[in-house]
Known about the structure:
The protein is an alpha+beta fold.
Amino acid sequence: MNIDMKYVTDILVNILKTPSPSGNTKKVMDIVKGEFEKLDIPTYITTKGALVATIKGEKDSKHRTLSGHVDTLGAMVKEVKSNGKLKLTQLGGYTWNSVEGEHCIIETSDNKQYTGTILISKASSHVYGREASSTERKDTTMEVRIDEKVESQEDVEKLGINVGDFVYFDPRTIVTESGFIKSRHLDDKAGVAAILGMAKYIVENNITPRYTTNFFISNYEEVGHGASASIPEKTFEFIAIDMAAPGEGQTSDESKVTICAKDSSGPYDFELRKELVDICKENEIDHSVDIYPYYGSDASAALRAGWEFKHGLIGPGVDASHSHERTHKDAIENTVKLGIKYIIK
């Protein structure tokens, strides 16, 4: 199976560099929609802003749906402080120390953009001594230093910056010669790129899926309700394509596709999990099976919302999840291969 990994990598870099925190995903969704349209795959946008792309299969009475989420971690302006700095509120779950020192962009409601840096309020060790290292990193001690001459709340508000404006983290995306991709927000843009790789292969090789197959791109996964609504009604199997998390005590690997057996929402469908493992074994796809104690997916959200279908979770190994992440092209390619073999099986 010859996967066009140049295409997958190029589109991944493009969407990684396009900000899309939960609640502000239209720009990147337009890019993804455009890629499906280039492949002549019909798409529509749900009322909630998710995208559904559909390839008709040999059987249309039942559908398979594969999901990925395009929304990422980020922040919003919680308060404009009297000293001209910004207090933030988080979008998604991450530790404040993981974004300390990160460059960011503040986008106003009228689309003006200003750069800044996320810092602890007592950042200078020459001024605050040990407090600079001992102060707890939390929402009350972190702030954005804006790259403008501002010294007061009034100065900031004159720029048009107000409570509720989105703050984007610099992804710092790099593709190394050794095949690694380093960036923020590989969760879950690596999964979305893998889905586009699957779709491209199926269309260009004139493959008709066994069942009508939907690609569901959600936009609120990081805040817990991404795939809670608007899933195609005929879906009998739903597979979330999302990152796997390597670490101490885990089997996930940056070069493999991982099949999740259980996460914080409970076990995934056992029969579907076995089917996915068998596909990997039969086709020599490098894979692992893992369990995540602090993890939920679009499949989890769908079941909590009352949807009834078999559910699974697969994805590329992504190191340092919800921090400055890294994966390898091999992991994404193995995810694409498993997805294709599942779709045509």
